[in-house]
Write a structure and sequence with these properties.
Elements lengths: L2 H13 L2 H8 L6 H11 L1 E3 L15 E3 L12 H7 L5 E4 L7 H7 L4 E5 L5 H14 L4 E4 L9 H6 L32 H9 L5 E6 L2 H9 L4 E4 L13 H12 L5 E4 L5 H9 L4 E4 L1 H32 L9 E3 L2
Parallel strand pairs: 2-3, 2-9, 3-4, 4-5, 5-6, 6-7, 7-8, 8-9
Antiparallel strand pairs: 1-10
Helix pairs in contact: 1-12, 4-5, 4-12, 5-6, 9-10, 11-12
The chain binds flavin mononucleotide.
Flavin mononucleotide binds next to helix 2.
Length: 331
C-alpha cells in the first residue's frame, strides 16, 4: 500500500473504537471477496505505449462511493468529507449521519444521493424529494442488497446500534419509517426502477451490477449509468473481484452508458487499470473512511490528492491515453 494511505489507515485503526473500525474494515462471510478486490488489481499490469506526443488532459476520474455513518469516523462526519471534495463527486449514503441538505451545503463538489428502495414507496419518494430539495444532481440506487450482508465481525461484536446521539438522519421523521435506523432491505424488480424514474428528473444510476445481462437490462430501462460493484465485499462472499467483473459489463453496455468501478481501489495505478478496462471512473470507499478518521477533511483531501497525483503520473507514463489492449495479466 502507498505509505500515505498506510499511515492514514494505521492512524484510523489507532483512533477508532475497535468495534467501529471492524464495521468499516470488515466484509461479508469469510471476507474472501474483500481480499480479492485488492488482490485482483495486483494481478494486472499495464503495457505503456510510447512516442505518442502530447498527452491528453488525464483529469481525475474518481468519485467517493457511498459509505454509511461517517460520524462514527469523525465528529464532523459527512460534513468533513463534503468539505474535502474540491470538485470530486461525493455519493452520499442514505445512511449518512448528517442530513443530505447539510452535506450539500458544505460540499465543494457535486453530491449524488445513494438510496436503497424502501418497501413503502412513500418513504422512497420522500427520500428522493429530500435529495432533490437539497440540490443533489443524481440518484444512485444500490441494487445488490435484497437482504443485509452477513458481517461476521459485526455479529461477533454485537454491533447493531449506533451510539447515542448518532442517527441515520435522512430517515428522520419519514412517514412509514418507524425509527432513525429504520433502513430496510427488500427484493425489488425493474418495475420499481421504472417507477422511481417516473417520479424524478434526476439521472438514476444503479450500483451493484456484476452480471453483464443485468447491465443490458439497465440500458433498456434507460438508467444513467451503472456501478460495477460488489459493495466492497460486504454482500455475497462468492462473487468475483469487482475489477474482474468489469470488462464483461463494459462490453455489454457497449458505450451506451457510463460504467463506474468500485471495490479495492487503493492507488492511482488501480484507477488507471479500471479506466483502461473501460470504466469512466473509479469509486473509493474505505480509503476515504481512513482519511476521515485519521484527520477529518484534511485526511480525505490527502487521499484524493494522492490518487490524483498517482493517476496523472501513470497516464503520463503510458503515453497519455489508456485502453484495454494495454492491460495484461501478470504471469
Ligand atoms: C463501512 C462501509 C459502509 C458502506 N455503506 C454503503 C451504503 O450505505 N450504501 C452503499 O450503496 N454502499 C455502501 N458501501 C459500499 C461502498 O459504496 C463501496 O461499494 C465499497 O466501499 C467499495 O469498496 P472499497 O471500500 O474497497 O473502496 C459501504 C462500504 C463500507 C466499507
Amino acid at each position: 500500500m502507498n505509505p500515505v494511505l498506510a499511515e492514514l489507515h494505521d492512524k484510523a485503526r489507532a483512533v477508532l473504537d475497535p468495534v467501529h473500525y471492524d464495521f468499516f474494515a470488515g466484509g461479508a462471510g469469510d471476507e474472501v471477496v474483500l481480499a480479492e478486490n485488492e488482490a485482483a488489481f495486483r494481478r494486472l499490469a499495464l503495457l505503456p505505449r510510447v512516442l505518442r506526443g502530447k498527452e491528453d488532459d488525464a483529469g481525475f476520474p474518481v468519485l467517493i462511493s457511498p459509505t454509511a455513518f461517517h460520524r462514527l469516523a469523525h465528529p464532523d462526519g459527512e460534513l468533513a468529507t463534503a468539505r474535502a471534495l474540491d470538485g470530486t463527486v461525493l455519493v452520499s449514503s442514505m445512511a449518512a449521519t448528517v442530513p443530505i441538505a447539510d452535506v450539500v451545503a458544505a460540499a465543494t463538489g457535486p453530491v449524488w444521493f445513494q438510496l436503497y428502495l424502501q418497501p413503502g414507496f412513500d418513504v422512497t419518494e420522500a427520500l428522493v424529494r429530500r435529495a432533490e430539495r437539497a440540490g443533489c444532481t443524481a440518484l444512485v440506487v444500490t441494487v445488490d442488497s435484497p437482504v443485509f450482508g452477513r458481517h461476521r465481525r459485526d455479529i461477533e461484536h454485537g454491533f447493531h446500534e449506533l451510539p447515542a446521539g448518532l442517527a441515520a438522519e435522512n430517515m428522520r421523521d419519514l412517514a412509514g419509517a418507524g425509527g432513525l435506523r429504520d433502513i430496510e432491505m427488500a427484493p425489488f424488480t425493474w418495475d420499481d426502477i421504472d417507477r422511481l424514474r417516473s417520479i424524478t428528473s434526476l439521472p438514476v444510476w444503479l450500483k451493484g451490477i456484476l452480471h453483464p445481462a443485468d447491465a443490458v437490462v439497465a440500458v433498456e430501462h434507460e438508467v444513467a449509468g451503472v456501478f460495477v460493484s460488489n459493495h466492497g465485499g460486504r454482500q455475497l462472499d462468492l462473487v468475483p473481484a469487482a475489477v474482474d467483473a468489469l470488462p464483461a459489463v463494459v462490453d455489454a453496455v457497449a458505450g451506451r452508458i457510463p460504467v463506474v468501478l468500485d471495490g479495492g481501489v487503493r492507488s492511482g495505478g488501480d484507477v488507471a487499470l479500471a479506466v483502461a478496462l473501460g470504466a469512466s471512473a473509479a469509486g473509493i470507499g474505505r480509503p476515504v473512511l481512513w482519511g476521515l478518521a485519521a484527520d477529518g477533511s484534511n485526511g480525505v483531501r490527502r487521499v484524493l490528492d494522492l490518487l490524483r497525483d498517482e493517476f496523472q503520473h501513470v497516464v503520463a507514463m503510458c503515453g497519455g491515453r489508456l485502453s484495454r489492449d494495454m492491460v495484461v495479466v501478470r504471469c
